[in-house]
Amino acid sequence: MATVVQAHERECAVCTNDFNTPKLLPCGHLMCRQCVISWLDSKSNAGCPLCTCPIVEHQVNSSRISADVVDALPTDSVMEAIVENASILMKGGMCTVCDDLKAEYICMQCLEKMCPSCMKIHKKMVVSRSHDVESVSTVTPERLAASRPALCADHGDKQAEMFCVDHNLAICTPCFSNKHKACLDVKSLDEKMKSAEDAFHSLREKLLTAEDNLKQAIVNLNVRVQTADVTEQQNMALVDKTCDRLQNLVDECRKQVKKLISDSVSKFKNSLYDVKSELDKRLGKVTSHKHLVTRATTVRPRPALIHAAKTLTDRVNNLDLSDKVEAEAWVNPWPETMTYCDDVVKVIGDELKSIRQIVLAEKPVLVFHENCGTNIRLTNFRKTARRVQLDKYGDGVIVSRDAMAVNVLYEVRIDEIKSPSGISLLLGVTSVSSTQLPLPTRSYDLKGSVILWQTGVRVKDSDTWTNVTEALNFLKVGSRVGLLVDSSNNLHFYADGHDQGVAAKDVPQPCFAFFDLYHKVIQVTALPTSERT
Questions:
Q1: pLDDT tens across the length of the chain (533 residues)
Q2: Beta-carbon contacts of residue 45 (< 8 Å; ≥ 6 apart)
């Protein structure tokens, strides 16, 4: 496909004039020969003014003259020809012969510009009747350059018919016979031009392919950059959310530990205050009786003193004069507070480990959502769910934050039960996302749900029941129960990490795992997800 070089493309980036001996830089950009020399003289390590790529490779001899370095660069003869022919088209629009009439035509061979009258004469003359004459308005510098005949390098007025490869010159037949007879590689000019045309075609295809590949590589990189930006934002949000939760936990830990210490010390101090109060009472009685005895020694007559002595003696003998009162033994609360703090540290460590799994593995993790029902109290950063007794049923539903991924096991561990037997735990999948969860929530209220329990499987809004394993009847503290949706949309039930088979088929998609703390299950903890094949 022919391309037209625009006027600005014929201008040098340095002098902004049309190219004068355009030199081809290693990066593919062009500069005038003199502009390159001046550019190199101005900077020791000058690069292309358009892309900053080096103009010349590092020279061993840095003292080389700039002109010699620039002359070693190839000259773009194509651009040189385009600039030359553009100047011909732009020079005065007057007829070459008449001078006073506007030129409307140009001869593509002899480059004469003509008015309509001169054009007719030009077409009648024997020497020029075979020339191509075209309207000036339709001729481009590229077409004009392409139409000009190839002339002999030594005889500028003779048409070249051969090409000497040894000297890289187009020559006429007399030059071949006289000057280039001894040259080893002289070919027909047409053959050499065809070879050059094929080479240009091959180069263009190669460059087009490389251009497409590089553009696609840049697109791929941009996609990766966008992905990195999104991941950064998600991870930053996750960090903020995690740190907020951790900070809340630390604040709660500080509050609880201080309360624990304060309660322990207050209890001990109250015991001491009780002892002090008892001793104060004894002291008061002793002091008051001491005053009575002291005063009695001053009383006369003697018979009264004898009577008073007997009375006071009976009184004093009945007093508790002991200074020993046992206070409650002091128990330093620090070990207990340290245990509490250690538990918090472990929770924080587990949380950070879970976050690390999310960031690095990018696997969905079963995290109980904030909107999981008013009858569920979430502690330990929504890893542990504890049932709150609101009514005689006292059940509550927890739902995974993210939709279930294929072949990923979602599990909970039973941490606490109300009695050692008769555990009831409902679990299943629902099409209701955690953000749309109604409050309060019961598993049988969930739309599009599949519920598993001891007696079987119930598909919501259907009377269909299917027998399942009785593994749910043997649950105990420490038992693990889980759900997995395979690539065929079959729901598998897992007990203690082992697949108990397909519990339901064609479950709704997308679906969310839910666990219903029903009757006697008090507390469960979400476990990290794991891929199964």
A1: 455 667 777 888 888 888 888 888 888 888 888 888 888 888 767 788 888 888 876 544 455 678 888 888 888 878 887 787 777 777 657 788 887 788 888 887 777 888 888 888 888 888 888 888 888 877 877 777 776 767 777 776 677 778 888 888 887 878 877 788 788 888 887 888 888 888 878 888 888 888 888 888 788 778 778 877 877 787 788 778 878 888 888 888 888 888 888 888 888 888 888 888 888 888 888 888 888 888 777 765 567 677 777 787 888 888 777 777 776 777 777 777 778 788 878 877 777 766 665 555 555 567 776 656 556 666 655 667 776 654 444 456 788 877 888 888 998 888 887 765 555 677 888 887 766 665 555 665 666 678 776 544 555 444 444 444 455 666 788 888 899 999 899 999 898 888 888 888 888 888 888 887 766 677 888 887 878 87
A2: 54
Alpha helices for 297-394 (secondary structure H): 302-318, 334-361
Instruction: Compute how many other C-beta atoms are within 10 angstroms of the C-beta atom of residue 485.
Output: 25
| 501: amino acid identity, one letter | G
In sign, the C-alpha dihedral spanning 375, 380, 381, 382 is negative
The partner residues of 48 in beta bridges, in order of sequence, read none
Q: Is there a contact between 173 and 162 (Cβ–Cβ < 8 Å)? A: yes
Where are any strands of DSSP class E within 285-383? Answer: 376-379
Tokens of 352: 């950070």
- Residue 397 near residue 443 (C-beta atoms within 8 A): yes
What are the phi and psi torsion angles at 229 (to 5°)?
A: -65, -45
CA dihedral 317, 318, 320, 322 (to 10 degrees): 20
- What is d(CA 504, CA 507) in angstroms, rounded to the nearest whole number? 7
Q: Find, among 409, 445, 446, 451, the residue nearest to 426 by Cα.
A: 451
Would you give the DSSP letter of residue 112? -
End-to-end CA distance of the chain: 55
491, 507 Cβ separation under 8 angstroms = yes
Question: Which among 509, 511, 418, 425 is positioned nearest to 471, based on CA atoms?
Answer: 425
